[in-house]
Amino acid sequence: MQAEMEASNQKALESQTALAETDAKLAEFTKRNGELERDTTVLGTSLRQMTKQYDKINTLNNELLDKYNALLSGNQSENRKLLTNVETLRLELMNKEDSLDALARTMAEKQAALADREAKLAELQKEIAAKDAAMKSLKDRVSAALSGFEGKGLTVEQRNGRIYVSMDNKLLFPSGSAAVDTKGREAIGKLSKAIENEKELSILVEGHTDTDKIGAGSSYKDNWDLSVARATSVVRIMQESSKVDPVRITAAGRGEFVPVDPNDKAKNRRIEVVLIPDLKELYNLVKE
Prior knowledge:
This protein has helices spanning 2-33, 40-145, 169-172, 182-195, 223-241, 265-268, 280-287, and strands spanning 154-159, 162-168, 201-208, 249-255, 270-277. The chain is an alpha+beta fold. A five-stranded mixed beta sheet has the order 1-2-5-3-4. It starts with a helix and ends with a helix.
């Protein structure tokens, strides 16, 4: 288009030059017309031909000028349209680059957070595994210490990360009483000795009864009262027979409301000693 435009400009200049030359000749011929009347016919013919050529050149010049102006106008319009499209594409590209940068930053942050979470999870799993192993070892020691009583109203279980030592009332108390008999004292003493050096262990002693109501004339108001009294009796014996820190022991009465077998009252009358590991480190790992 630029080359065509330059060629058109050149032709227009040539036409204008030719037009100027023609005008000069026409003036000269007109001046000489009076002097050359004898050649009127010949000169008239030449003049008509030159006039015709002038008209053609003038018409061609006008056409070229029109084409040049149209070409120039169209070229500017196309350039403006092209520049507008280029600017639009540039802005879209900048927006996409910004979005990609933001996405990359977000992905990097998420990957860092995921790596940190995975590290904490691995540490948490390691801590849980260590706690489970420690509790398994403790259960084995407790079972060994109480082996003479297992199957005689005493069971030792590990579940939910805790150890449950369950002792039937027939092993510990006379009916309706909170006084522990000799055999029960022996079992509690062996249990206390097995756990007295577990400094990070919390000990929960729970008393449980059946649904039978307390008889008239009893020193206990109800099953709540009886269950608490029995739990307290066990706690006292634990302290008397070992060096267990009393700060780590809790005595609780659950009454008749947590039965192990609703159809077997004898199973429900029991003391449960729950050995609970210190999970403070695990809680701290979860919170972080």
